[in-house]
Specification:
This protein is mainly α. The protein starts with a helix and ends in a 5-residue tail after the last helix.
Length: 412
């Protein structure tokens, strides 16, 4: 193994594997202990991980720190959308998931900016504030009413729903609570054994949709671009500062997610997802073309030195407005009795694909060339847009219970 493997690639692998390892544990915890409690528990490894990185005096301490932060990040990627799904009204769900994705991209942008003028020790120490803030905010909000009802805590569920629906009347809140309770009872009747779960109406369709949208996200190449963005700019021969290029791409992602939150509940999930995929395909094609011309026609290539940055900006906007947030929104189609299994499976497949793409990107680049390392993602995204057109339904404006009724009906 080379020194660069231990210093650069191995930490990336550790993060992805730790995130993947969290999914079965969280899949169990989310049903046993609740959404809020599970997220509160995850703030501990997140805080400990950043503290270890801050005071690390050897490489292996850095690896342990990244393993803990990767585990917590993987858990939050499953729990946060689940909590939003179960506590938000249908008119605000898309916007709230976009805020969740916005927070992720602000977290990506933060080390780009702060890391450009400070050491990693101080950067990691400043990130210790994040789990503390998360814990304080979680203490201010209630547990999911759906989870409380599933544990037969009707009084607490009513209190939680009243807090969440403060703009609704008592009658409307009680009606919603009864609707949730009825849906939970129906879902419990459908859940009796693994074999019956597999044969249950909607299981195959729901699982296929979740796996499809999650693979669409990972196949966009976003994690490769985030992990290797400075290497990509360096290989392109761009004369723009590597730190500045990373910051520009990060800012564009934040702007794109903010835009997504404004238009998603108006335009709809499916149309925005397909627009997003189209932008990603175009950007990856031209990014690959730039690297192709770098070898085949260097003279032409010199006149388009701006193309890598523009391509990555378009890719970032495309990902941020659709492919980034929308797969998490489609977790809303999962019926309650499938929640733990299908969500853990979807997130697990997502993280597995991310791990594989990140792990083997350099080998693909060395063996097939930088052009094909991006064209492969463009081809995969093209398959994704076809899947979106033919297989993914629109969920805008439907309540959680309406969605579950639709996806557990054999007529669909």
């Amino acid at each position: 193994m080379t020194i660069s493997f231990y210093k650069f690639l191995l930490p990336l692998i550790i993060i992805k594997l730790a995130g993947l390892a969290s999914t079965p544990f969280i899949g169990i915890s989310v049903d046993q202990f609740g959404r809020k409690t599970s997220m509160l528990a995850l703030t501990l490894p997140l805080l400990l991980g950043w503290l270890i990185i801050s005071f690390a005096y050897n490489l292996w301490m850095l690896y342990v720190g990244r393993m803990l932060t990767g585990f917590a990040t993987g858990g939050f990627s499953l729990l946060s959308p689940t909590y939003i799904k179960e506590t938000s009204s249908e008119s605000h769900r898309g916007r709230l998931v976009s805020i969740h994705i916005l927070a992720i991209h602000l977290g990506i942008l933060y080390p780009y900016v702060v890391g450009s003028f400070t050491s990693y020790e101080w950067l990691a120490l400043s990130l210790c504030a994040v789990p503390v803030l998360i814990a304080l905010m979680l203490l201010a909000v209630p547990e999911s009413p759906r989870h409380l009802l599933s544990k037969r805590n009707e009084k607490q569920a009513l209190s939680a729903l009243t807090w969440l629906r403060r703009n609704k009347s008592s009658d409307e809140i009680l009606e919603e609570l009864k609707y949730i309770q009825k849906n939970i009872e129906e879902m419990k009747e459908a859940k009796s054994s693994l074999s019956e779960f597999i044969r249950a109406p909607g299981t195959l369709k729901t699982t296929a949709i979740i796996l499809g949208v999650m693979l669409t996200q990972s196949a966009s190449g976003i994690d490769v671009i985030i992990s290797y963005n400075q290497k990509i700019f360096k290989d392109s021969g761009s004369n723009i500062s590597l730190n500045l290029s990373s910051i520009i791409v990060g800012v564009v992602q934040v702007v794109g997610v903010a835009l997504s939150g404004l238009i998603m509940d108006r335009l709809g999930r499916r149309p925005l997802l397909m627009i997003s995929q189209g932008l990603i395909i175009v950007s990856l094609f031209f990014l690959g073309l730039y690297f192709h011309l770098q070898i085949s026609n260097p003279v032409v290539n010199e006149s388009i030195g701006w193309l890598p940055l523009v391509s990555l900006m378009v890719h970032s906007i495309g990902f941020a407005i659709g492919v980034g947030p929308i797969p998490w929104i489609y977790l809303e189609v999962i019926p309650t009795y499938m929640m733990a299994i299908v969500t853990a499976l979807g997130v697990g497949v997502n993280w597995t694909a991310i791990f594989l793409f990140t792990r083997f990107y350099v080998q693909v680049q060395e063996n097939l060339g930088s052009d094909w390392s991006f064209w492969i993602f463009a081809i995969l995204s093209s398959i994704g847009i076809i899947f979106s057109y033919f297989c993914i339904p629109e969920t805008k404006g439907k309540t959680l219970e309406e969605l579950q009724d639709i996806f557990t009906t054999r007529r669909t």
